[in-house]
Design goal:
The protein is 39% helix and 23% strand. It has 6 helices and 8 strands; from the N terminus they run βαβββααβαββαβα. The strands form 2 sheets. Strands 1, 2, 3, 4, 5 and 6 form a 6-stranded mixed sheet that branches. A two-stranded antiparallel sheet has the order 7-8. α1 crosses α6 (146-167). The two termini are 26 Å apart.
């Protein structure tokens, strides 16, 4: 029962969250493939899927959105979890789901959607990103809370164990 972890990240912070989730799944005994959304060509090998995206301008990045839309039918047939990374600050803002995620949730009906604080580093940003950051007075820093990410990944592990147990034939006594 292989799990796909597919994450779109602009500067690497969201990718690191996806890799952390993948490691927790692997440590729990689940085979995991980690692919960028554009690299995913089929869902057949995967019994479960985790898809994440950085949030810019309040929305998921296009490759992650397109992955969900491209495989919507197949994603509805297996356990799926989504995550968004982008709120920044202490406490992280904006609060709540990013714009545009609600239609994706309605489309595939995932088991969960995690929203995690992100990282904003001045040296990683292009000119347009720096201008937008200044315009909205966004704070710089790494606001990711690894305990929250680990707990969310642990919930996925527990849910996958339940799926596996339900799929196993009852033992004959």
């Amino acid at each position: 029962m292989t799990v796909l972890v597919s994450v779109e990240s602009r500067h690497g912070a969201t990718e690191q969250i996806g890799l952390r989730v993948a490691r927790i799944l692997t440590d729990a005994g689940w085979p995991v493939d980690v692919l960028r959304p554009a690299e995913v060509t089929q869902m057949t090998p995967y019994a479960a899927v985790v898809i994440g995206s950085a949030v810019y301008g309040g929305s998921w990045l296009a490759p992650a959105r397109e992955l969900v839309e491209r495989f919507a039918i197949e994603l509805r047939e297996r356990p799926v979890w989504l995550f968004s990374s982008g709120p920044i600050g202490d406490p992280p803002k904006p609060i709540g789901d990013p714009a545009g995620i609600a239609p994706l949730i309605r489309l595939i009906q995932p088991r969960g959607h995690g929203v995690f604080a992100g990282r904003l580093v001045d040296e990683e940003l292009g000119i347009a990103e720096k201008l937008m950051t200044r315009a909205v007075r966004a704070p710089y820093g790494d606001f990711r809370n690894w305990r929250v990410v680990d707990a969310w990944a642990g919930e996925i592990v527990r849910a996958l164990e339940e799926v596996r147990q339900a799929a196993e034939p009852a033992a004959i006594s």
